[in-house]
Amino acid sequence: MNFCAIDFGTSNSAIAIEADAGMRLVPLEGGPQGEHLTMPTAVFYCTDTDDLPASALPGPGGDDTLPRCFGRAAVQAYIDGYEGRLMRSMKSVLGTALVDQTTEVGNGHGVRYLDIVTGYLRHLRAQAEKAGGRPLSQVVLGRPVYFVDDEPDRDAAAQASLEAAARAVGFADIAFQFEPIAAAFDFEQQCEREEHVLVADIGGGTSDFSVVRVGPERAQRLERRDDILANHGIHIAGTDFDRHLSLARIMPMLGLGSFGPSVLGQPPRPVPSRVYFDLTTWHLINTVYQPARVAELRNMVDFYGDPVHHRRLMKVVSERLGHALVGRAETAKIAVAEGGSTDIDLGLIEAGLHNGLSAEQADQALRADLERIVACARDTVKQAGLQPDQLGALYFTGGSTGLALLTDALQAAFPTARAVRGDRLASVSTGLGLYAKRLFTA
Ligand SMILES: Nc1ncnc2c1ncn2[C@@H]1O[C@H](COP(=O)(O)OP(=O)(O)OP(=O)(O)O)[C@@H](O)[C@H]1O
Ligand SMILES: [Mg+2]
Question: DSSP for 124-139?
């Protein structure tokens, strides 16, 4: 009864508790008009306590007293211009040196990255305890196949950090399950015969694959180790797509790929590109706003052949538009996924500024990412000891499987497998819930 399951995602999170015969996802945001069962993995720390958004909640106390907003409310507080700092993609910090470091959130306040994760998990648990009307002490946490690619020590450290955060929140009994295995358990609920499924869970931070033997009879067993034939993953997913689309279609408007003036007959030099990479990477954006960096960028005007580019860049830096631009790239990606082509409105940089994004341009910008993801899927099947035609089904979950470019490429690699689409945002949390129930009621 006191158990739950948490999908702590790079972009979105959810929590499941026991209900009647099964498990249910807890409403995390929204009112009677519409409840949201998943919530952006976002926290907004408010640094001006005299002017707080209505959604701000008090900090838990101790060293962690700043009021904060979570999820959609966090993003909204940021958009509404409240003083403070928006934190996203916190999961990407697990397994890096940043996790124990303190980051400045404004007005001289600092927050340790791991405490941001802890605070977010505490909020999820509180929502679930309120919804279920009982305390929760046992949890299954999902984890990607690799928090960190090719570095087992850092990967283990990442899981240990997440476990420490869960313990700090008050969970006494903590278990982990791979996210794509959880998705396989969700798929298995609709499975009519025994078969091999390749689960493709393509989220914000990671693309995770598992080959699992599923079937109505096997679903009854708790011990499934023999049914898990392979797990594999790669750190390329939705946030990389956003970055690459921005580098292809937004950053060139600020000078990326352009050249400096021709001096004394020398061939013009390309504009230094580092700032554009930093401006498109969530956890590096704030480094561009540091006063010394701003001064350095301001002094680089002579590197630009077209002063308009430098002017736009300085506008983005001085008005701290980096996160908003990443948001524009993400919106454009989803528009292309849903409609084929779109126009990216960059009026926040300069009145009337915009750039198109067609399906072909998106394909070109994402081609290298997609190829690496497909290669990872093929490797997973190989590691399972199967030929591609031995797969019965290909199960798609994770927000990024909204991109037809991606699912088409995966389907083409396994043409005989039947493609099944799961609930893009809730499949992993539902499956983690099924697993938690088996584990904690066994
Ligand atoms: N319709 C869509 N088409 C393409 N991508 C989409 C669509 N909707 C959402 N996304 C992308 O899906 C990603 C989030 O997916 P999801 O919520 O599954 O990730 P996550 O579970 O938080 O991340 P991870 O599992 O990697 O930790 C974001 O990058 C978002 O931009
Ligand atoms: Mg996920």
Answer: HHHHHHHHHTS---EE
Q: Return the DSSP state at 97.
A: G
Which DSSP category does 10 fall into? S
Give exposure, 400-428, as e/b (b: 16+ Cβ within 10 Å).
Answer: bbbbebbbebbbebbeebebbebebbbbb
- The pair of structure tokens assigned to 270 is 């390309």
User: What would the pLDDT profile of 85-108 be if each residue is shown by its tens digit?
Assistant: 999 989 999 999 999 999 988 888
The two three-digit tokens of residue 180, written as one number? 């794509």
192 in Cβ contact with 170 (< 8 Å): no
CA distances from 124 to 40, 117, 376 (A): 11, 11, 32
Q: How many CB atoms lie within 10 A of CB 133?
A: 7
Q: Ligand 2 centroid vs 179 CA: distance in angstroms?
A: 7
Amino acid symbol at 392: G
Count of beta carbons in the 10 Å neighbourhood of residue 371: 12
Collect all residues with Cβ–Cβ distance below 8 Å to 272 and sequence separation of at least 6.
Answer: 300, 303
Pocket of ligand 1, candidates 6, 7, 11, 427: which has the most ligand atoms within 8 Å of its Cβ, to mutate? 11
307-348 tens-digit pLDDT: 999 999 999 999 999 989 999 999 999 999 998 899 999 999
